[in-house]
Design a protein that fits this description.
Elements lengths: L2 E5 L3 H11 L4 E3 L20 E5 H18 L6 E5 L4 H4 L3 H4 L2 E4 L4 H37 L4 H20 L4 E6 L4 E4 L1 H7 L3 H5 L14 H14 L1 E10 L5 E12 L5 E8 L1 H52 L5 H32 L8 E4 H16 L3 E6 L6 E4 L1 H17 L5 E10 L2 E7 L32 H11 L3 E7 L3 E9 L3
Parallel strand pairs: 1-2, 1-3, 3-4, 4-5, 12-14
Antiparallel strand pairs: 6-7, 6-10, 8-9, 9-10, 11-13, 14-15, 15-17, 16-17
Helix pairs in contact: 5-6, 10-11, 11-14, 12-13, 13-14
Length: 518
């Protein structure tokens, strides 16, 4: 029966895991894990497996490292119980401190499987240490004890039997090999791991140095030198090239069993594919968390900047109207009120973009298509945008001059074209013509918005539709980086497509294609 130490600060998790494990294992359960303040408090009883959570790992990681070091070369496993929100908390010491992890909510079958594998690995490690000690003792005894030759032969024979049992074990891959690359024996677990058959082994087709990728050969040479000097080498990670050309990541440990006439060794090989996948998933999770934090920071910065300016304008003009109302001419009052209205409209546009993007990202953006006469819709929109652009830009609508309708979401189409036209105005600070080209072909409506502005650098095109991303050449031109992200979401809801062509210093053309009968 394996001895399992539970270091879980969550009371319900301690109770649940204790109940699950107690029927099959000896459970060591500190009365309250959170009250354990000194590592010495954890050393009162030996254990074969420690199950701990992220907070316990963070508190006792130095004790974990010391405990693993003290047990070497015997394998002492540590199993981490974690949740997605604890990933960042546990990562600091994760991969140098634990051997496996299980995420919450915990499945009982999965827990039992992982616990059983780790305990078997420890049992195998203890057996391997015992066998290795016996082999070393027998090698010394063979050279020193002339009178006990028969007894030494018998002991050696018994060791060979034990060794053969290890070789035949399917718990972990095992091979007998020499430093020249020849594999003289291997168990079925190793053959399955590398994708070869026993017939391949008999024909000498399996050589460990041939299966080793070039980037790991220097590490192999270091291990051989370590074997020559000490008879053992520390376990290390590498990859083997399988029979089908794919690679398998492994953890390998080697010990010398005979030095004459050549250096013969036994190696134990563990497939760590699942662990590598877990590491990759953990790195991806951390990267997504980092990106999310960056997006949050950008959003706060955008809100504080983009919302402050219109609010300051509204506040300033309102105070001026209140304090100096009788002194202002009617045209001046109208100008102030128009500036207020423009600021209010800007705030409404910003809020619409934020809300639209937020609903789209959680899958709650509504799509309500109606029959819409496109040319009339575009003509009215261009007229409204021309008021915003004033005299600095001339916005033209190019269309076939005939009525045709499409089934589209009017609100989303307005956001698509308004954002594209607004960008064309904003990023053409020197003025210039802006064109909205409307065509219809093969049951598709095609909208092209073309400007003569600053253009987009090629390096920014791939990230152009990401939230908060702005091109590197915008300089001091204000903006949130939300408009094109909203456009892309709205286009995708129509099952349409958007493309961009741009040349820096010349201008930009956005092409939106929407099905007319969606």
């Amino acid at each position: 029966m394996g001895r399992i130490l539970l270091l879980l600060e969550h009371q319900e998790n301690r109770r649940l895991l204790s109940e699950w494990l107690a029927p099959r294992y000896s459970v060591i359960l500190p009365e309250v894990a959170a009250q354990v303040t000194e590592p010495a408090d954890l050393d009162s009883q030996p254990f074969d497996l420690c199950i701990l959570d992220a907070r316990a790992l963070d508190r006792f990681w130095e004790w974990v490292q010391a405990k693993r070091t003290a047990e070497k070369p015997v394998f002492l496993p540590f199993l981490l119980v974690t949740a997605r929100q604890d990933v960042g908390y546990a990562t600091r010491h994760l991969w140098q401190s634990i051997d496996d992890l299980i995420t919450k909510p915990i499945e009982k079958i999965e827990l039992q499987a992982r616990v059983e594998i780790l305990l078997r690995s420890r049992q195998f490690s203890l057996q391997l240490q015992t066998t290795n000690q016996q082999l070393q003792q027998q090698i010394v005894a063979r050279h020193q004890a002339e009178a006990g030759e028969e007894r030494a032969i018998a002991a050696q024979h018994q060791s060979e039997i034990q060794f053969q049992r290890l070789i035949n074990s399917n718990l972990i891959g095992a091979i007998a090999a020499d430093i020249e690359g020849n594999i003289t024996d291997a168990n079925d677990a190793f053959l399955r791991m590398v994708g070869y058959t026993r017939e391949d082994l008999k024909q000498g087709k399996i050589r460990w140095n041939d299966m080793t990728p070039p980037e790991y050969r220097d590490r192999d040479r270091d291990s051989i030198e370590e074997l020559r000097n000490t008879g053992v080498c520390n376990a290390f990670e590498k990859e083997y090239i399988r029979a089908d050309g794919s690679r398998v990541p492994v953890l390998i440990g080697v010990t010398v069993v005979e030095r004459s006439p050549r250096l013969n060794c036994v190696a134990f090989v563990l497939d760590i594919t699942q662990r590598k996948q877990a590491e990759a998933e953990m790195r991806n999770a951390l990267e997504k968390e980092r990106e999310l934090n960056e997006l949050k920071s950008r959003f706060v910065s955008m809100v504080s900047h983009e919302f402050r300016n219109p609010l300051n304008l509204i506040s300033g003009t309102a105070q001026l109207l209140v304090r100096s109302n009788n002194k202002l001419s009617e045209p001046k009052k109208q100008e102030l009120l128009q500036r207020q209205q423009a600021a209010v409209n800007r705030l409404i546009e910003l809020l619409d973009d934020v809300l639209t993007l937020g609903r789209a990202e959680v899958g709650k953006l509504e799509f309500n298509p109606i029959e819409l006469e496109l040319e009339a819709f575009c003509r009215q929109l261009v007229a409204e945008m021309q008021l915003t652009a004033k005299e600095a830009h001339a916005i033209a609508l190019v269309s076939p001059g005939k009525r045709f309708t499409a089934k589209v979401d009017k609100k989303l189409l307005q956001q698509i074209l308004t954002n594209l036209l607004s960008n064309a105005i904003k990023y053409s600070p020197q003025g210039g013509d802006i064109t909205l080209d409307l065509t219809c072909q093969e049951n598709e409506a095609i909208f092209r918005v073309k400007d003569e502005g600053i253009g987009i650098p090629p390096k920014d095109l791939q990230r152009l539709f990401e939230s908060f991303h702005r091109a590197s050449n915008v300089g001091g031109i204000p903006g949130t980086g939300l408009g094109l992200a909203v456009v892309k979401q709205a286009v995708e809801l129509h099952q349409g497509a958007i493309a961009v062509e741009s040349e820096e210093g010349v201008g930009t053309t956005f092409t939106v294609t929407l099905p007319m009968d969606r």
